[in-house]
Amino acid sequence: MSLTGNHLIAGIETPATGTPFTARNPATGATLDGQFADATDEQVEAALQAAEAACDPLRLSSPETRAQLLDALADEILALGDALLDRAHAETALPMARLTGERGRAVHQCKMFAGLLREGSWLAPRIDTAIPDRQPLPKPDVRQVYSAIGPVVVFGASNFPFAIGVVGTDTVCALAAGCPVVVKGHPAHPGTCEMLGGAIARALEKVALPAGSFSLLQGAGHALGGALVRHPLTQAVGFTGSLKGGRALMDLAAARPSPIPVYAEMGSVNPVFLLPGALAERGSSIAEAYLQSVNMGVGQFCTNPAILLGLNGPGWDTFTQRTAELASGVAPATMLHQGIAEAYEGGTEAWKRLPGLQALGQSTTAADPAKTEVPCQIFTTSIDQIENQETLHREVFGPCSIVAPCSHRDELLRFAHSLEGQLTASIHGTPDDLADHADLIHILERKVGRIIFNGFGTGIEPCPSMHHGGPYPAASHSFFTSIGTASILRFVRPVCYQGFPDPQLPAALQNANPTGAMRLVNGTLTRDPIA
Ligand code: NAP
To answer: Which domains does the chain have, with CATH numbers?
Structure first.
């Protein structure tokens, strides 16, 4: 499949006339096919005007039509076949097996949101019927349901070109909610973005929804992202990426004359706590699972376990010895792009200059910079050092991690108290350990989006109960998730109708309950119609 390098604005390919850029294969250094360019201000304007024009037809379309759109999108993603996988592999160096699995996740997400739309209860309809003869004042008829907020700008992440990319959760749940989407393509995989953008345009055409419901603008600099966030028609932003990028966009959005929410999922150090029973029972097997998690995807997961603490003793020694041994056997591997590899080198070099931080284990084979390779590096230090060095609380994206022994459980608790907001925390223990450490869990409940028992945060299940987020700086809004069905709630807001005649109400609020959704009627959850 040949790439045009064009932007896609409301289904129309628009020539790339701005500052040019190309994609690079990180594993070989080769420049890849396709000449891309930064979208111009006029193209930003055209994409957002088209999105605004598509707003009402899209948000007022039936849930079934939007479910059909997502089913069609799933088919279109699969129809791109091996060409999509080949291009994504060339642009990201992610292994084909991983990309095939991630494509499956993107397709699953489309189907999951289609199912959500067909079932309907996500709209959370609430109805309080009138009591005209209530004393001393009559009670009005009041009803509430969620409504789409308008054009959403989406920034995908470099490490999930499908599942958190152009067709990732942000785009899919915004379209499901009835919001037009303008995606800013990721500059590290523009060809993959172009192919996936075409899939969305074809899916919209198949179900006869307005082409302006989706645009893809390519760009390799911050100017385009800034222009999209500042544009007055943009109503919300979905972002997955670095803390630096997310924070910059949050600040831009807050400084607008009319501020808008930026739902940013950012970095995290995902602390791991090894409790005494688990260390005594299985220090060696925990080390194996830990190393696997640290190195999964060359450590390029926001849920990578970057800090691990355990209680000192024989179990801790078994754990650290096995960790050092395993780290030395990890082959260096290619990162997603040069910038990420440089940030990894810079971050780990800065750690090495800190007093009291030593290498525990690292890849013994040399990394090849021409292949954008980096080694696995595990460090050890003291709990005091971790607490006192702010830089150790900041994510270094890649296959590195720091372990520290604690001499007493109070040190574990003190560390947990000192944490900033995190996407995940993991506790390894026996059931007795867990019962003895209820205080640790209570601290983590205020710090973390997802607490994992006897596992690691890498590998996120996109399901209704998933929460992928956390207090700042893990995410910009701690209430919202960017993965799983609840992510749709970022792109709607409640609208309340008082005293409305039944036919003029949205379908989900009408007495007959034509959508069949679960509703809160006079304080009781029910699917029953109102007599
Ligand atoms: P990134 O460098 O923050 O870039 C993400 C997107 O934002 C790109 O399109 C980038 O394009 C744009 N951008 C970045 N800074 C910007 C700014 N100041 N103004 C306007 N646009 C800006 O993220 P990445 O490339 O995916 O790098 C990996 C990072 O993502 C890691 O820190 C990792 O932890 C994080 N991540 C988080 C999650 C999560 O779920 N929380 C998942 C995956 C990755 P331009 O450079 O062209 O402006």
So the answer is: 34-266+482-489 (3.40.605.10), 272-453 (3.40.309.10)
